[in-house]
Design a protein that fits this description.
- The chain is 80% helix and 0% strand.
- The chain is an all-alpha fold.
- The radius of gyration is 24 Å and the shape is elongated.
- It has three helices and no strands.
Length: 107
């Protein structure tokens, strides 16, 4: 009975993770962040070309956008916790698949 509960719990977690990943893909979050970077790059290229045409002095720092650093204690804790969860999930999935492999190969 315990194995059945573990399997149900694992399957439930996998379903929740799938729904979360599918939702982020469906909403286009990743594409939005990447297109935002591209747009900023296109603006920098346009400014660079304009400065070259006008004969201004060129400096790379004028065209690169500095990203704000939002690191603080809470975000660092979140990253460490995320890493810990990732490692645990990887180990659990590897163990699960090894057990499935043993079950498949034993029959």
């Amino acid at each position: 009975m315990k194995g059945k509960k573990v399997a149900q719990f694992t399957f439930s977690i996998l379903i929740i993770l799938f729904i979360a990943l599918y939702t982020t893909q469906l909403t286009g979050y990743y594409e939005y962040t990447e297109s935002k970077k591209t747009t900023l790059t296109d603006d920098a290229i346009a400014r660079f070309e304009k400065d070259v045409a006008e004969g201004k002095e060129i400096s790379a720092k004028n065209y690169l956008v500095e990203e704000k650093n939002y690191n603080n204690t809470a975000s660092q804790f979140g990253m460490k916790l995320s890493s810990l969860i990732e490692d645990g999930f990887n180990k659990a999935m590897n163990a699960l698949f090894k057990e499935v492999e043993k079950a498949v190969n034993s029959k």
